[in-house]
C-alpha cells in the first residue's frame, strides 16, 4: 500500500474539529505578534493615562472594554457559556485576584519606569515556580533553584544595572 505524501499527512493531522479547515501555524504566530503589540500599546497608554486619570478608573474601563470584547466573541460564536452555580465563589475569587493584579500592575506603570515594570513582570514564571513549591508541594531540584536565583539576579541587574541599589524591595 502506498503512503500519501508527507505534506498531505500533515494537512490531515492539522484539520480542526470541524474537519473543513486546515490549521495554519503562521496564523497563530501572527496572532501572537498582534497580542504582544496590543499589550505593549496598552502598557504605554496606561502609563500616559495615569498622569491624567486615577488608576482605579483606568482599571475599570480596561475591564469594561474586555467584557465588551468577550461578549462580542460570544455573539460571534453564537453561544454563551453556562455558568455553574457551584463554581461562582471560585469565579468571584479569581475576578478579585485578577482585578487586584491589574490594579497593582497599573500602579507600578504609574510609579516606575515602564522598562523596570516589564523586567519585574518577567519574574512571573519564577514566582509561580516558588509558589508551586510552597503551596503545592512541587519538588524543585538544585538546578531549578539555581535557575530561580539566577533569574532573580538577572532581573535585579536589569532594574539596577550598577548594583548600587541592590535591594529586595525591587524584586
Describe what you observe in this structure.
The chain is mainly alpha-helical. Helices cover 69% and strands 0% of the residues. It is built from seven helices and no strands. The protein has helices at residues 6-13, 25-49, 55-77, 88-111, 114-121, 124-135, 142-159. Helix 3 (55-77) packs across helix 4 (88-111) and helix 5 packs antiparallel against helix 7. The chain is globular, with a radius of gyration of 22 Å. Mean pLDDT is 82; it is low at 166-171.
Q: Uncertain spans, ≥5 residues at pLDDT below 50?
A: 166-171
Q: How does the helix and strand content classify structurally? A: mainly alpha
End-to-end distance: 62 Å
| Alpha plus pi helix count | 7
Largest sheet: none
Report the order of strands and helices: HHHHHHH
Strand content: under 5%
Number of strands: 0
Tell the overall outline: globular
| Arithmetic mean pLDDT | 82
Amino acid at each position: 500500500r502506498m503512503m500519501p505524501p508527507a505534506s498531505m499527512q500533515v494537512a490531515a493531522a492539522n484539520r480542526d474539529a470541524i474537519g473543513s479547515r486546515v490549521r495554519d501555524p503562521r496564523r497563530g504566530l501572527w496572532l501572537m505578534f498582534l497580542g504582544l503589540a496590543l499589550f505593549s500599546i496598552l502598557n504605554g497608554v496606561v502609563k500616559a493615562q495615569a498622569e491624567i486619570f486615577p488608576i482605579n478608573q483606568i482599571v475599570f474601563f480596561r475591564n469594561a472594554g474586555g467584557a465588551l470584547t468577550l461578549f462580542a466573541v460570544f455573539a460571534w460564536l453564537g453561544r454563551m457559556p453556562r455558568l455553574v452555580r457551584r463554581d461562582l465563589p471560585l469565579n468571584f475569587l479569581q475576578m478579585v485576584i485578577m482585578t487586584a493584579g491589574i490594579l497593582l500592575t497599573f500602579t507600578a506603570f504609574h510609579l516606575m519606569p515602564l522598562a523596570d515594570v516589564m523586567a519585574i513582570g518577567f519574574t512571573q514564571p519564577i514566582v509561580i515556580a516558588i509558589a508551586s513549591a510552597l503551596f503545592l508541594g512541587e519538588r524543585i531540584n538544585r538546578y531549578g533553584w539555581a535557575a530561580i536565583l539566577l533569574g532573580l539576579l538577572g532581573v535585579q541587574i536589569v532594574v539596577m544595572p550598577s548594583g548600587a541599589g541592590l535591594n529586595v524591595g525591587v524584586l
